[in-house]
Amino acid sequence: MILLEMGRKRRNTFNTHPSTLSPSHPLFLACFQPCKAKQTGFLIKNGKQNSCANAGWPPSPGYWPSSKFRPMSFYKGFRNLWGPGHQSVDQNALTIWLDRTSGSGFKSVKPFRSGYFGASIKVQPGYTAGVITAFYLSNNEAHPGFHDEVDIEFLGTTFGKPYTLQTNVYIRGSGDGKIIGREMKFHLWFDPTKDFHHYAILWSPREIIFLVDDVPIRRYPRKSAATFPLRPMWVYGSIWDASSWATEDGKYKADYRYQPFVAKYTNFKAGGCSAYAPARCRPVSASPSWSGGLTRQQRRAMRWVQRYHMVYNYCRDPKRNHALTPECWTK
After folding, report:
1. pLDDT at 292
2. Nearest of 70, 41, 69 to residue 54 by alpha carbon
3. How confident is the model at residue 177 (pLDDT cuts 50, 70, 90)?
4. Cα–Cα dist 274/257, whole Å
5. Is 149 a catalytic residue?
6. How far apart are CA 239 and CA 75, in angstroms?
7. Disulfide engineering: 246 pairs with which of 9, 106, 151, 242, CB 3.0-4.6 Å?
8. pLDDT of residue 56
9. Is 296:304 a contact under the CB 8 Å cutoff?
10. pLDDT given at position 254
11. What would the mean pLDDT of 202-219 be, rounded to a whole number?
């Protein structure tokens, strides 16, 4: 890519493509401009590629894993974990909220060693900087300071800017001072404050697949036991104040003039092999094949999402020590 600077052409010497950077990054702003109304994505400045022309809704994945699992009531599969006064259930829809006194969280009644875990979620519009709305797997209570975690997190935002959906994987020890995050971040092709959309994690012994409305947005394959969570985990959800890092690396904090910050969950789904299931229990699959993986059509949809809506990929971050994330460069 060629950038213009002081009337001269200057070649981009960064070893990451600008499209993988945060939209607030100076290089991103130098290379891209927002699409016009009713378009999604970004247009490369002074270039030939037009992402807007191909943007919109992703191609059909051709297969819908969520349809294979029945929704459950909140109390059938979950219980309050903290902040009971900031949580309410009405007709199987859960509302949790954060104010200056507390947030709230919930947890599944049983642990799993693999499975499909999803919920339809709607987040609050307006100023939500510093606020995290999460749906995730973890065993942090069973292994404090040495736990595994698989995250879907909505990173709060400021007026006029989109939410960032962060996916992350931690392997053994994310809380012991040696934090190794494996973040991929997205700006979604819709406004998550307008309606409920289904967000899911499919975890098998071979791979982790993150899905939004059944569209795969990320696949994290098992390349070694050292870089993949294998111990049983519970399903969690929460809303909490993460002002120190959530919005533009902590630049914008939670502002409680806008409280309460509300998140709504419904259409809970959790199925697969519990930690107590017999060894013959068959892991779930994101595709029609029981062997796992994604179909060609699902991969096409995932590539579309990552091309037009991914704004950060830890494997492409030159500031990261990739000796600590060998999955980025090993086959």
Report:
1. 81
2. 41
3. low
4. 42
5. yes
6. 18
7. 242
8. 81
9. no
10. 98
11. 97
pLDDT value of position 178: 67
Catalytic-role residue among 149, 207, 248, 327: 149
Token pair for 283: 């892991």
Residue pair 150/168 in contact (Cβ under 8 Å)? The answer is: yes
Query: Sign of the CA dihedral 18, 55, 302, 232?
Result: positive
pLDDT (0 to 100) of residue 291: 80
- Among the listed residues 153, 183, 207, 327, the single catalytic one is 153
> CA-CA distances (angstroms) from residue 169 to 52, 91, 151, 191?
30, 32, 6, 25
- Alpha-carbon distance of 169 to 160, in angstroms, equals 29
* Closest among 217, 169, 202 to 271, alpha carbons compared: 202
Q: Is 41 within 8 Å of 186 (Cβ atoms)?
A: no
Q: Is the pLDDT of residue 3 over 60?
A: no
CB contact at 8 A, 304 and 58: yes
Q: 115, 326, 273: which is closest to 207 by C-alpha?
A: 115
Rounded CA gap, 142 and 259, in Å?
Answer: 33
CB 246 within 8 A of CB 130: yes
pLDDT band at 78 (very low <50, low <70, confident <90, very high): very high
